[in-house]
Specification:
The complex is a heterodimer. Chain A is mainly β. Chain A has no helices and ten strands. The chains are: A mainly beta, B mainly beta.
């Protein structure tokens, strides 16, 4: 069965500390992986996409196919990073016509001053 | 605002009443998703469309729920005979098929059933 797990419901760090939000997935094939973020009173929005291999707002995420993980990392957390973070695998094939985007249960990150 | 638009933003209804929500996706996006989100939970998939075709419905979507997307443009989600358990935030998102995991979300419709 396809499944995505975010083991930490809550994560609290101090400003300037490193942060890692964990995501493990169980999907057949090679899904494309996304991280979405929801700041307080804002709409859910894309943070980053593994295939882009980019750093957004200082966050990076490495896809580890062996461990089936896609952890989100930032070396120095800022207070404005406080938000809800969702890992979202998307099954990928060349057609992609009959697959849906699903989300983990999310991790609430709080960055304390 | 050229983003995904949802109306109404809030809806309070009495148990047993019918409600309908509307989603206007980004104009060039032909994939449209509906999700439900309750407090402290991630968005739960309900259904999605590619153009006007409804490709999948979640088991969460009971017979009281129906969604349409006439002409592949805006979409409506109707809940008949609402129950208190239907109280949630209903989210709509749209994407283009070539990057279907890159979805743009509306601000949601918060439903409260009293």
């Amino acid at each position: 069965a396809q499944r995505v797990t975010q083991p930490e419901k809550l994560l609290s760090v101090f400003k300037g500390a490193p942060v890692e939000l964990k995501c493990n997935y169980s999907y057949s094939g090679s899904p494309e992986l996304f991280w979405y973020v929801q700041y307080s009173r804002q709409r859910l929005q894309l943070l980053l996409r593994h295939i882009s291999r980019e750093s957004i707002k200082g966050f990076t995420a490495d896809l580890n196919k062996g461990e089936t993980s896609f952890h989100l990392k930032k070396p120095f957390a800022q207070e404005e990073d406080s938000a809800m973070y969702y890992c979202a695998p998307f099954p990928f094939d060349s057609g992609g016509s009959n697959y849906k985007l699903t989300f983990g249960k999310g991790t609430l990150l709080t960055v304390n001053p | 605002d050229t983003g995904v638009s949802q109306n109404p933003r809030h809806k309070i209804t009495k148990r047993g009443q019918n409600v309908t929500f509307r989603c206007d996706p980004i104009s060039e996006h032909n994939r449209l998703y509906w999700y439900r989100q309750t407090l402290g939970q991630g968005p739960e998939f309900l259904t999605y469309f590619q153009n006007e075709a409804q490709l999948e419905k979640s088991r969460l979507l009971s017979d009281r729920f129906s969604a349409e997307r006439p002409k592949g443009s805006f979409s409506t989600l109707e809940i008949q005979r609402t129950e208190q358990g239907d109280s949630a935030m209903y989210l709509c998102a749209s994407s283009i098929p070539t990057v279907s995991g890159k979805a743009f979300f509306g601000q949601g419709t918060r439903l409260t059933v009293v």
